[in-house]
Specification:
This protein is an alpha+beta fold. The protein folds into two domains: about 1-140, Alpha-Beta Complex (Phenol Hydroxylase P2 Protein), CATH 3.90.56; about 140-335, Beta Polymerase, domain 2. The protein is built from twelve helices and 17 strands. A hairpin with a 2-residue loop joins β3 and β4 (about 55-60). α6 packs antiparallel against α8 (about 230-240) and α8 (about 230-240) runs antiparallel to α9 (about 250-260). It is elongated, with a radius of gyration of 24 Å. The relative contact order is 0.09.
């Protein structure tokens, strides 16, 4: 479906001879000359540009456009400096050495995006495309780190990274704080979606928490980039609290089983006690179900809570009530197997 929709958008773009929200570049029989930026725009039979995710990377594939002028010289300078993702401020610092005046910089960036040399991530933030010689496409996790601060790869994306699920999420889940400024693309604004943004054909889904609940992260190398990601214990707890962002509750239970003896019981207990009471009780139920000794679960059992909470927060309020954990066991039989 997505590929078909993208193909239709691209075909319409060729007919219109203009750029669309996917980053598909103008295709027209034009040669444009500007005072400070000269470039060719390829004919349809010569080459066209499109953004697409490949092996976790935000990749642009094409026949490299022929371009001259200070705009492309800025791209060369950024590439030489290792600025695969950069801000307008950084471009302004390098503009004089590329022969670009400050007053022309924004227009030059606009042209470079339309030609496919750059990808606009959000206002004031860009990435070099893979059309730039020697540039490795940015991994989607690297892009996530640049889109919002603070940021940690989380939920279903973190489950997959830690090998706790065989399913590959169609979104990139990013944990951030309620104080962070979340980017939204025109597509989300039009659809009334307020949880994510598209970059090329990848949807980044942001999950906001209070600043004091932004913890339980670690650093990981993704290629040549170091990113922040929730550790296995925090990822499992996020699954208990918001299973819809990890596939479903059955998928979260399966992740607990996969982690098995590698689970750090002290760490996950400490994390849970810093979160909400419902998550504490769900964790206690899951660990007892997995065979952990009740003596190891006393801090979770003693934690106060008022009223019964659903084991699966997305499920119906039905099923037997477990008095030890104040949990209503609302799982289907197949969810437990």
């Amino acid at each position: 479906m997505a590929g078909s929709r993208f193909a239709k958008e691209r075909e319409a773009t060729h007919r219109r001879g203009e750029s669309d929200e996917f980053g598909v570049v103008i295709v027209a029989r034009l040669f444009v000359i500007d005072e400070q930026l000269q470039y060719y725009i390829h004919q349809p039979d010569v080459g066209s540009l499109c953004l697409r995710p490949a092996a976790g990377k935000i990749e642009m594939t094409n026949h490299r456009p022929r371009s001259t002028g200070p705009g492309v010289e800025l791209v060369r300078r950024l590439s030489a400096e290792g600025d695969r993702i950069f801000t307008t401020r950084r471009a302004r610092e390098l503009a004089p050495s590329a022969g670009l005046s400050e007053g022309y910089l924004r227009q030059a960036l606009h042209h470079l995006v339309r030609l496919g040399w750059l990808v606009r991530l959000r206002k004031g933030l860009y990435a070099l495309s893979s059309t730039v010689p020697g540039v490795t496409p940015a991994h989607e996790f690297e892009v996530a780190m640049a889109l919002v601060t603070p940021a940690a790869i989380s939920h279903w994306s973190a489950l997959h990274h830690h090998g706790l699920t065989d399913q590959v999420p169609r979104k990139v889940f990013v944990l951030t704080t309620s104080e962070a400024s979340i980017p939204y693309s025109r597509r989300e604004q039009a659809q009334g979606v307020r949880e994510g943004c598209w970059v090329a054909d990848v949807l980044f889904h942001f999950v906001q928490v209070r600043p004091k609940r932004f913890f339980g992260t670690e650093k990981a190398w993704i290629g040549d980039t170091r990113v922040t990601i929730t550790d296995p214990e925090r990822t499992l707890l996020d699954g208990l609290a918001m299973p819809r962002y990890c596939g479903n509750f059955a998928e979260v239970l399966h992740a607990f089983e996969l982690h098995g003896s590698a689970l750090n019981i002290e760490r996950i207990t400490e994390y849970a006690l810093r979160l909400d009471a419902a998550t504490v009780k769900r964790l206690g139920w899951v660990l007892e179900y997995q065979g952990f000794a009740l003596s190891e679960l006393k801090p979770l059992e003693r934690h106060p809570i008022k009223g019964y909470r659903k084991l699966d927060p997305t499920g119906p309020r039905a099923g037997p009530q477990n008095r030890r954990w104040m949990i209503q066991e609302n799982l289907l039989r197949e969810d437990r197997t």
